Amino acid sequence: WDVGEPAADSFLDQGQDQNIDSTVIPVDTSVDSPSSDTTIDAPPGPFNPGTGPWQRHAGNPLVAADQSGVDHKGAFSPVVYAAGNKYLMWYAGKGSTSADSVSYYQATSVDGITWQKDLTPVLSPGGAAWDSTLYGFTVLHDGSVFHMYYIGASGIRRIGHATASDADGKVWVKSANNPVISPGGTYDQTFKAIGSGYDSTNL
Question: In sequence order, what are the beta bridge partners of 158?
Answer without folding.
Answer: 152
